Amino acid sequence: NAGVTQTPKFRILKIGQSMTLQCTQDMNHNYMYWYRQDPGMGLKLIYYSVGAGITDKGEVPNGYNVSRSTTEDFPLRLELAAPSQTSVYFCASTHRNTEAFFGQGTRLTVV
Amino acid sequence: AQKVTQAQTEISVVEKEDVTLDCVYETRDTTYYLFWYKQPPSGELVFLIRRNSFDEQNEISGRYSWNFQKSTSSFNFTITASQVVDSAVYFCALSEGPGGGADGLTFGKGTHLIIQP
Prior knowledge:
The complex is a heterodimer.
Chain A: E1 4-7, E2 10-13, E3 19-25, E4 31-37, E5 43-51, E6 54-57, E7 64-66, E8 76-78, E9 87-94, E10 101-102, E11 106-110
Parallel strand pairs in A: 2-11
Antiparallel strand pairs in A: 1-3, 3-8, 4-5, 4-9, 5-6, 7-8, 9-10, 9-11
Chain B: E1 3-5, E2 10-14, E3 19-21, E4 24-26, E5 33-39, E6 46-52, E7 59-61, E8 64-69, E9 74-79, E10 88-95, E11 106-107, E12 111-116
Parallel strand pairs in B: 2-12
Antiparallel strand pairs in B: 1-4, 3-9, 5-6, 5-10, 7-8, 8-9, 10-11, 10-12
């Protein structure tokens, strides 16, 4: 069982570039989330989705966009990368009574 | 709004010592869930335990134990006879749903635990 898969694992972006962080899960989970983790801080919720076609903002959504066209995939889009978006990004999924399953994380550096 | 406070930024102990990581939470929900996650140096998040607000029984799993007290809004984590492999950042988290619900998990800032040989 693959669980939650994130790609890429590492990426360096230049200021102003755009990229998409991919997240896919094979557990048929309804709920999916994107978090970011900054040094010395806990994870903060960027966006979440309760099902295909439904997304909503979390605590820190500025500078990001998401889509949820299928149950399996929940990509996170950065349109104009800024140094403040340097962080580790985690995707997670859950369903009903399960605990959240996290991906391995994507370490993004914006220079 | 929900809030999780882990006042201990970093703890350093010598191997085989017992150590307790503190977690205090705030929520207006009557039903909620509390979690502990471990983040080893490799960076992944490892689920340790989940507790719902109606179950205040303490839990023991090997060298790990958890003390949930609603009266003090605390969910503390104790490692007995610590080992070097326990070195990691530990996060306490809170949510309205079993896995995060509609609003996801609210995390504390984490406690960096260092076990010295």
